[in-house]
Automatic annotation (TrEMBL):
<dbReference type="InterPro" id="IPR009056">
    <property type="entry name" value="Cyt_c-like_dom"/>
</dbReference>
<feature type="domain" description="Cytochrome c">
    <location>
        <begin position="71"/>
        <end position="157"/>
    </location>
</feature>
<dbReference type="GO" id="GO:0046872">
    <property type="term" value="F:metal ion binding"/>
</dbReference>
<protein>
    <submittedName>
        <fullName>C-type cytochrome</fullName>
    </submittedName>
</protein>
<keyword id="KW-0408">Iron</keyword>
<dbReference type="Pfam" id="PF00034">
    <property type="entry name" value="Cytochrom_C"/>
</dbReference>
<keyword id="KW-0813">Transport</keyword>
<dbReference type="InterPro" id="IPR050597">
    <property type="entry name" value="Cytochrome_c_Oxidase_Subunit"/>
</dbReference>
<dbReference type="InterPro" id="IPR036909">
    <property type="entry name" value="Cyt_c-like_dom_sf"/>
</dbReference>
<dbReference type="GO" id="GO:0020037">
    <property type="term" value="F:heme binding"/>
</dbReference>
<keyword id="KW-0349">Heme</keyword>
<keyword id="KW-0479">Metal-binding</keyword>
<keyword id="KW-0249">Electron transport</keyword>
<dbReference type="GO" id="GO:0009055">
    <property type="term" value="F:electron transfer activity"/>
</dbReference>
């Protein structure tokens, strides 16, 4: 009895498949398929006639490109490779600070004294000032490393002045 029931169900399924194929469903290029193709053509025509506005992703990519360009530009004065690799991506090669849209990436360092910079670096390293990026960058640095960065950043105005006089 089971075999007869399975056989009848199989014949019904095949019959339904043949009936669907003969009526030309959407996926077989029938009338429904023509309607779907027509909708696609109309949508493409409307998109072509309207001026393309930049998507959010494109706007973000342009802003990031501008940031990369600013970070990669060579300052008017020499900076160490350590500063370039650790600090320039957020604070700029010349310490002028960086902004991403309206969000501040890294504040301006140019013009601050070596002592001020050193104290701020210690505060970030110890956790007295909260900034995960800064803490991550400074966690394995020695006090000597912090002093070296602070001294270099503190010299930026004098270096810029020397370049201007040349």
């Amino acid at each position: 009895m089971k075999n007869i029931t399975v056989g009848i169900l199989t014949l019904v399924i095949f019959g339904l498949m043949a009936w669907t194929a003969m009526n030309g469903g959407a996926y077989n290029g029938g009338e429904h398929g023509k309607i779907i193709a027509d909708i696609g053509n109309r949508t493409a025509a409307v998109q072509e006639s309207q001026p393309q506005e930049k998507s959010d992703r494109e706007k973000e990519n342009e802003a990031l490109s501008a940031l990369r360009e600013k970070a990669g530009n060579v300052a008017g004065f020499k900076v160490s490779d350590a500063y370039k690799s650790k600090c320039a991506s957020c604070h700029g090669v010349d310490g002028s600070g960086m902004q991403y849209g309206k969000k501040l990436m890294g504040p301006k360092l140019f013009g601050q004294s070596a002592e001020t910079i050193y104290k701020k670096l210690e505060d970030f390293k110890s956790g007295r000032k909260e900034n995960l990026v800064m803490k991550g960058l400074l966690i394995h640095m020695t006090q000597e490393d912090l002093r070296r960065f602070a001294n270099e950043i503190g010299e930026f105005p004098a270096r810029a002045q020397a370049v201007k006089q040349e």
